[in-house]
Amino acid sequence: MSGGNLPFLPSTEREHPFPQRCLQKISSFFRPQGLAIRLLLTSVLLPTLVVFLYLALFASNMYLAETKFAIRSQNQQQSLDMLSTFFRTSTSTLSDSYILQNYIASSDMIAKVDARLHIQEHYSDRTRDIWYRLTSKPTQDELLRYWSWAVTPTFDPDTSIMSVQVKAFTPQMAQAICQAILDASEELVNAMNTRARTDAISLAQLEVTRAEERIRAANEAMRRYRERTVILDPQAVASGLYGLVNQLEGEITKTTAELAEATTYMQADSPRVVMLRNRLEVLQKQLQAEKARLASQMQGDRPLSALVSEFQSLTLEEQFAQKQLTSAMASLEAARVQAESKTLYVESFQKPIVPDESLYPRPVIFSLVFMLAATVLLGLVSLIVAAIREHAGF
Question: Which of 8, 43, 116, 387 sits in a 20 to 30 Å window from 344, CA-based?
């Protein structure tokens, strides 16, 4: 080697340095002759081939398990009118189905399934495909986003059918996760049943307790009243006194008439006249005494009429308390029957089974989709570049 000459290089390469040669190759690539074919080859076909080879040779297989179920109620009735068909209103079962759909996609479901199957270890396995696996220490948002990709709950309001699809790296894990979601969904529905039944019955039971307390208070007030007055029924006593007064007045009237008749033909000191006069005096004294019992104080400073009025109030309170207790117990029984009739349950008609083949990834379909997207993107970029060049005038 002398004079800085490079005899082993072609003459063209000795004449032009390396940067200039690179610029020449780039400019020759963008020459109009065959540019579309070169762009299509480098921007669409080669990346599509790389994607296909990666999906076919290196991507981890994903297995899909599916379960289908519906939330049913014991008193659920099928509406047959046309208005309910076209203008479907929201029902309790429909609302509970949407609640369950959101619960399946929530962090609570992730925690429940992870505690049972350790799904974070499964999805973050380092031997799996980097594009499909979970990060080693995911945050709550990352875990929730990955769960939304791995688990897809779908609810059809027209048929009230809930469908859950689960992706996993092994068929056994896919089936196990799907079964765990189904079990957790049944637990949630049972918890909602218990809560609804407890709320419905507790209110009716509270009314029964209040009625029982009221009737106990009324009975206690009546007991204290009878101990204080030493009278079981002052109203019956008053009725008896009124009857006795009426009887005495009748006897006085009769005796007065007999005395007046006897004095017309007997002496004033005759035995019969004296007897009638004495009897009349006794009857009048007894009448005055009985009237005094009615009008005078019978217990302390309270007249019998006040005692009768208080007894009637206590009796009326007892009757109202008894009616309230009867009504509350009937309402409690009705609440129990209604709570039982509104019991929800998960009706699973497609159990999760172990898949026998992997459905993801699909190299051919995914590669075709990628090629189509790359072609569209290349076309958009070409249109933008052409518009810029035409606007710039070169």
Answer: 116
